[in-house]
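Q: Here's a chain of 144 amino acids. Please give me its 3D structure as tokens.
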Amino acid sequence: MSPADQGVAGRSAGGLAVRPITAFAERYRRFARDLTRRILSEAFMVLRMPDGVLALGANLDVPVPAVFEVLDEPDLLVLVNSVEPPVGVCDDSGAEDWANLHQRMHYIFHLFRGFHERPVLFDAPFSAAPVEAIRAGRIPAGLL
């Protein structure tokens, strides 16, 4: 066998051994990435509201305000249909993977719709003392 033939044979044999390892490594990489995204989404993705804390991975079980019970604006219906599951499918709005744009938009849709009329959201976000600290270039004490 010539050296050129040995090189081709060697690459073929090596390629056969490398392919399963590469395929396994790629599956493991995807698994690790997805697991990391889910862990980070669950552990860190929270939204502090004036009246509580929302876990962005949990379903928002809030009533639909009367103003949104019937949607008849065509552009709004297109948007809603792009983020909501089909009728009859479980509508869990929690974003288990905040890196997934569709899950994120689905949660945000429920957030905006469900909290649209909450009076507490129209209050000033800071009292006078934190505003004074911010204007002075300091980080205010306490929760922000």
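Q: Can you summarize the key feature?
A: Residues 1-44 form one domain.
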